[in-house]
Amino acid sequence: MSKLKWQLIIVTFLLYQRSLSAQDIPSKRIVEGFNADPKQFPYQVYLMILKDSHPFTACGGVIISNRIVLTAGHCIPTKFNAVKINFGTVDISNKMEVGQQQLIVKAKNVFVHPEYELNNKPNDIALIKLPADLLFDEYIQPAKLPDANELYENESAVVSGWGTTSYNGPQPNHLQYYNVTVYSNEECKNKLVPDIFPSSYICLKPSQSSPCYGDSGGPLAIRNEDGSHTLLGLTSFGSETCEFNSPPIYTRVSSYLQWIKKFE
């Protein structure tokens, strides 16, 4: 596949939400995903970017400590006022959901990686510094950060988010997930284009499920034996039409541990 062709068939999952209000149509799918249970993904958050105090676009994010949430750099526009974060949420249409907390964070506390450029996908990561400590409980927990020296090749993992259930499809109210397998870097390079696949990417083996519009910034994680989760990646980009046979690309969190540490 030519480099130009690859660039034409992938787009960021910036998930300009096509409808910023919750959909009335229930769904069991991300694209061929499944409904999450309460407390199943306590590290997952729902982000609403506010511009001129109005909803602008939505993304996923991940709790990594009581003061830090990670998301994708492309989720954060150049100009905005604040980010509204839903913690402990499974059904985004249910404002009275048990375990849910909300927090609004001002733009001055949101940091996009300094080397990220919108049309140059590496370094697609942003950090939100919370103004107060999160209170952890069974609904809200951080994901662990990955080992800097571990590639997690061929590991079984899980992806979650509120992305659309198909290309041009509805956005579900209910958090979706699907199980995946991490490709090795060599497999990714062979499947894609070697000279545009940096080590700061992770890609997944093609499967019968796919992230889609609305999933950006959400987690790629593995489940540990003690029931906790380790964050491997953040949803970055993939097929424009959310196709199953095109490996989705994630920002490799272990490549940014030193940058994250500056905010602790």
Automatic annotation (TrEMBL):
It comes from the Eukaryota. The keyword Disulfide bond applies. GO terms for cellular component: extracellular region. GO terms for biological process: proteolysis. Its main location: secreted. PANTHER family: ACROSIN-RELATED (PTHR24252), HYALIN (PTHR24252:SF7). This is Chymotrypsin-2-like. It comes from Drosophila albomicans. The lineage of its organism: Eukaryota, Metazoa, Ecdysozoa, Arthropoda, Hexapoda.
